């Protein structure tokens, strides 16, 4: 069953451009991953430093593989320095 993922990330003050750059670097390698149906990044027009990813994966196990991928692992190592807060929604389309 396909998995929908919506992730929002808010940059720490002064880190907006750095976070934007790092997040952009996740797009191409993620879209190339097995099971990625779509992976789209959005930048808020209303709130500086707020980003959202909308994603669909063929299955939760394939998304789990994505979360363990080298590019996501590398992002996780930088996250504490760049991200003030984040939320993650996972679910199925009904």
UniProtKB/TrEMBL annotation:
Domain of life: Bacteria
PROSITE patterns named among the record's database cross-references: ABM (PS51725)
One Pfam family in the UniProt entry: ABM
InterPro entries: ABM_dom, AI-2_Isomerase_LsrG, Dimeric_a/b-barrel
Keywords: Monooxygenase, Oxidoreductase
Claim: Zinc is one of the keywords in the record: no
ABM domain boundaries: 3-93
Gene Ontology MF terms in the entry: monooxygenase activity
PANTHER family per the UniProt record, alphabetical: ABM DOMAIN-CONTAINING PROTEIN (PTHR33336:SF3), QUINOL MONOOXYGENASE YGIN-RELATED (PTHR33336)
Listed name of the protein: Antibiotic biosynthesis monooxygenase
Naturally occurring in which organism (per UniProt): Paragemmobacter straminiformis
């Amino acid at each position: 069953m396909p998995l929908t993922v919506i992730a929002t990330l808010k940059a720490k003050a002064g880190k907006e451009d750095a976070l934007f750059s790092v997040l952009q670097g996740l797009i191409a390698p993620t879209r190339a991953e097995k099971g990625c149906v779509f992976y789209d990044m959005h930048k808020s027009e209303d709130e500086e430093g707020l980003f959202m990813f909308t994603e669909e994966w063929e299955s939760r196990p394939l998304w789990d593989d994505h979360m363990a991928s080298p590019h996501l692992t590398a992002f996780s190592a930088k996250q504490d320095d760049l991200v003030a807060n984040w939320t993650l929604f996972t679910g199925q389309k009904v």
